[in-house]
């Protein structure tokens, strides 16, 4: 493993993520939105997250930032990044399959929206966010640069912190006691932990 191969792996994994998402994005677009909380705050958070997980690391992969922020490359850290990204992609696929037409990129409730509580949603309420955190960790391990590496954790972490309570409030408003009971028996990100 070399820094160049690590950059190629990051790029291939991001493309693989989009290949997983694309068919669900198309399907979701065909299902009307009944209620939306996609306001300026959501757009800002999505932009911050996209910058940290896509634009900043993408610019680093393309230009190398003139080596500014690079530190000594460790092949074993990069291999750990490959394993974490593989786990993240597996979880992305499972979350998209389980959510199906109920998925939205933002805070939206669709026509005929159903509360999904099975599959990877059985033990955690936000497994797709777990997958994004795994992506961010993998990025930090693969792109060994002080700017591009941690950008994903900062970008996605910001979205998570400012979105998760609003999302849960929206779900509670929509599904009432069903969501309250679901929240009581599940954790947010890691099964049985938190
Ligand atoms: C980007 S998805 C993320 C879903 C979830 N927070 C996760 O991390 O797996 C956000 C949308 O998914 C929908 N959603 C979240 N949890 C859901 C559930 N358990 N069942 C059905 N829809 C859900 C909501 O409509 C929300 O707008």
Automatic annotation (TrEMBL):
It is a multi-pass membrane protein. It is found in: Membrane. Gene3D superfamilies: 1.20.120.1630. The chain crosses the membrane at residues 6-24, 45-65, 71-92. Keywords: Membrane, Methyltransferase, Transferase, Transmembrane, Transmembrane helix. Pfam families: ICMT. InterPro entries: ICMT_MeTrfase, Isoprenylcys_mtase. One of its GO terms (molecular function) is protein C-terminal S-isoprenylcysteine carboxyl O-methyltransferase activity. It comes from Tepidamorphus gemmatus. This is Protein-S-isoprenylcysteine O-methyltransferase Ste14. GO terms for biological process: methylation. PANTHER family: PROTEIN-S ISOPRENYLCYSTEINE O-METHYLTRANSFERASE, PROTEIN-S-ISOPRENYLCYSTEINE O-METHYLTRANSFERASE. It comes from the Bacteria. Its main location: membrane. NCBIfam families: isopcys_mtase (NF040696). GO terms for cellular component: membrane.
């Amino acid at each position: 493993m070399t820094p160049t191969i690590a950059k190629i792996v990051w790029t291939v994994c991001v493309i693989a993520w989009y290949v997983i998402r694309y068919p669900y994005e198309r399907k979701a677009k065909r299902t009307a939105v009944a209620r939306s909380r996609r306001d300026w705050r959501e757009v800002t958070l999505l932009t911050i997250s996209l910058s940290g997980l896509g634009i900043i690391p993408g610019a680093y992969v393309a230009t190398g930032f003139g080596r500014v922020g690079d530190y000594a490359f460790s092949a074993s850290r990069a291999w750990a990044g490959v394993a974490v990204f593989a786990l993240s992609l597996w979880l992305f696929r499972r979350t998209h399959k389980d959510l199906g037409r109920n998925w939205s990129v933002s805070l939206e409730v669709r026509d005929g929206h159903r509360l999904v509580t099975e599959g990877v949603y059985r033990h955690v309420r936000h497994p797709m966010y777990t997958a994004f955190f795994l992506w961010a960790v993998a990025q930090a391990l693969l792109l060994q640069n002080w700017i591009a590496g941690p950008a994903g954790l900062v970008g996605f972490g910001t979205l998570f912190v400012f979105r998760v309570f609003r999302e849960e409030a929206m779900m509670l408003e929509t599904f009432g006691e069903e969501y309250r009971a679901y929240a009581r028996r599940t954790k947010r990100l890691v099964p049985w932990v938190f």
